[in-house]
UniProtKB/TrEMBL annotation:
This is Proteasome-type protease. The keyword Hydrolase applies. InterPro entries: Ntn_hydrolases_N (IPR029055), Proteasome_sua/b (IPR001353), UCP009120_prtse (IPR016545). GO terms for molecular function: peptidase activity. One of its GO terms (biological process) is proteolysis involved in protein catabolic process. The keyword Membrane does not apply. Keywords: Hydrolase, Protease, Proteasome. The lineage of its organism: Bacteria, Pseudomonadati, Pseudomonadota, Alphaproteobacteria, Hyphomicrobiales. GO terms for cellular component: proteasome core complex.
Length: 242
């Protein structure tokens, strides 16, 4: 399992993902689930992945290979004319990989993977998409300004209650860490370290990128402070009257 979040704010796009993959309690590994393509002054694209590890790695490797090999450069993440076309490219690649991976007569469900794609191409607005295992996709809206994939249920309540598109980067990271902390404490299949990336509108370069390890002092402060705040809030609520 995994947990990844992409948010669209008034200032830019913010992404966070965990790095744990597991095939049972005795087979736990760390793999990066955040992948980037950029061309200075032209585009930045960020892809988060969740699901079958072999599928997600094959999709990312195929997309990456097509940006480097001259004879296979089209279609390429570095040449798509729009973010919509980039989302279509990822969706088509997902379908291609799953179709090749699933043996004849076997359900493709076991090979499923989902993705969050966000970024900006020069001359256009930043966009954020959720891409399903079937290859189709949806885009964020004013009503749904963020996407989650993987183990979403534990970290979603704080995002729904507190996220505001006017938040600055510092506030957004604080909110994401609370969301991830809740998930980390509730599901062992989601684990540290965490990858964080911020893209500021119209810069066409990655603005901030960081790997947050288990010993990160700010993560520890957020985790402990949130636990204390929840206990205080609970005690302040009125008791049930019989």
């Amino acid at each position: 399992m995994t947990y990844c979040v992409g948010l669209k704010t008034q200032h830019g796009l913010v992404f966070m993902s965990d790095t744990r993959t597991n095939a049972g309690v005795d087979n736990i590994s760390t793999f990066r689930k955040m992948h980037c393509w950029q061309e200075t002054d032209d585009r930045v694209l960020v892809l988060l992945s969740a699901g079958n590890l072999a599928t997600t790695q094959a999709v990312v490797s195929l997309l990456d290979e097509r940006t480097k090999a001259p004879d296979e450069r089209t279609p390429s993440m570095l040449e798509t004319p729009s973010m919509y076309q980039a989302a279509r490219l990822v969706g088509d690649t997902v379908k291609e990989v799953i179709r090749q991976s699933a043996p004849a007569g076997q359900s493709a469900d076991a090979f499923g993977a989902s993705f969050i794609l966000g970024g900006q191409i020069r001359g256009m607005e930043p966009r954020l998409f959720l891409i399903y295992p079937e290859g189709n996709f949806i885009e964020v809206s004013a009503d749904t300004p963020f996407f989650q994939i993987g183990e979403t249920k534990y970290g979603k309540p704080i995002l729904v209650r507190a996220f505001d598109t006017a938040m600055k980067l510092e506030e957004t990271v604080k909110l994401l860490l609370v969301s991830f902390d809740s998930t980390l404490k509730s599901n062992l299949s989601v684990g540290l370290p965490l990858d964080l990336l911020f893209y500021e509108n119209d810069t066409f370069r990655i603005g901030y990128e960081k790997r947050i390890e288990a010993d990160d002092p700010y993560l520890r402060e957020i985790s402990e402070g949130w636990s204390d705040a929840l206990k205080t809030a609970f005690k302040s609520l009125p008791d049930f009257m019989r």
